């Protein structure tokens, strides 16, 4: 998929909204009515809780970094949107066949000036050195769909609801907003997973795993994942990895426990600052699921955050994360700390060594490796 200013605009909305604004588990539940029933993965951000945590201070620090401040301020001035204060919630849905259908949907709640945002996107599209062009528009269901290619489009459902979706799903989102069709709220399997999470947490997500896409070293396959993370008084994480049977879940749990013990013995652990995270990790089997929890107090979380910030600065100095922090739509479109990598995730999430070597999922639609070897 092309990296266009249109997608860059959506990426900035997404990245900045991750950093914290108002939101609630109840609002996420209501917004699920805008996600098509075919969604097999659903994720949400309760931004009010995230803003109320000390993680927010780290976000503000990155947002004011000289290397990104100019671009961010330009975006706010031209669009009338300050994502850090005006975006209120993010919710996404992805189908199991995303690799072939190229469908998905992200719904963002906030305060949007459609005219200014579209004008900004069009300006960036025209001046994009890699993919200059025009943003096209079409009417559907009383709304205007904007797009620069044949795969993605975005629409303003009203002054407080922005949606970015695949070419077919964007119309489904419009229909759902008008009360037509069935949403993921009618997907019983997904809703059963949602009930396993704490939807009032800062982050939560669930996903069904297509058969044959997540073979376990210990035998069997992974069926689903459900989890949440919160930062109210430190770091609290709950993850449920569902196997095909209680016996498989027990074997997976035992294997994961062994790997955690191996990580603890690694001398590099102290250097990365991940010791507190690994020590606070508990793994147990519950029925057909492996349940992983992490509970760190605020002091431990702050120490981990400081160590991660140090690592990020070190990598930036080495050029390992240089990549440019330029304008919207090009490489480095996201502000520092809001993209992939240790700086772009909340403390303790997504950094190297932060989690044991859990089973890796094959992208939907890909074939198994030759010889039928199982994934680690």
Number of helices: 14
- Approximately what portion of the residues adopt beta-strand conformation? 15-25%
Level of helix content?
A: 25-40%
Mean pLDDT, as a whole number?
78
Pick out the low-confidence regions: 1-25, 320-376
Distance between the termini: 28 Å
Radius of gyration: 21 Å
What is the overall silhouette?
Answer: globular
What is the succession of H and E elements?
A: HHEHHHHEHEHEEEEHHEEEHHHEEH
Task: Map the helices and strands.
Layout: H1 5-18, H2 25-31, E1 39-45, H3 47-51, H4 55-63, H5 66-79, H6 83-86, E2 89-95, H7 98-101, E3 105-109, H8 114-127, E4 136-140, E5 143-147, E6 152-158, E7 161-166, H9 169-177, H10 188-194, E8 203-208, E9 222-230, E10 234-243, H11 246-264, H12 268-272, H13 275-279, E11 281-286, E12 289-297, H14 298-318
Antiparallel strand pairs: 1-2, 1-8, 2-3, 3-7, 4-5, 5-6, 6-7, 8-9, 9-10, 10-12, 11-12
